[in-house]
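Board notes (copied after class):
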Amino acid sequence: MHISSFSNFQINNMTPAQKNEAIEVLKSKFTQYDNFYLTNTESLTVAQVSKLRGLCFEKNVEMKVAKNTLIKKALESFNDEKYAGVYESLHGVTALMFSDSPKEPAMILTSFRRTNKEKPLLKAALIGTDVFTGDNQLKALTNIKTKNELIGEVIGLLQSPAKRVLAALLHHHEQKEGAEATA
């Protein structure tokens, strides 16, 4: 059974086996990804949720809807304090966005919200070990640097001194040639 199908049942109607299966699926996702976002999709239409799922699929972001109690039980099973800041965000309808990129879900939400009246709302995000809570954190999350962006910056910084040395040597060489030509 896929986790998205769990959202179609009231938690009271789920058998203990279904609840345990949902928790295990969630635990595997939390283990697989260092980053996840919690959003409130309650005010979205079915068509809007489908569109959001499509955008997530295009950007390699997994979107799952699950009951808050199951999400909390899955997180509590890890007995890790890093999740404590997420618990207070577990209310209303919750859609999880799992990604290897710390900022891709934020970019998707920002883009989607331009045409969907500032919905869905960001409840919380866990990036590595840092928790960001509240919709007001979305802009900050779009500015997070990815691993590749950081590597690019470091390479640029490392190349910069070498480029300056080469430019100085070339300038010195040109000056020397210019002086020899006038002499």
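Comment from the instructor: Residues 1-9 have pLDDT under 50 and may be disordered. The two ends are 86 Å apart (CA to CA).
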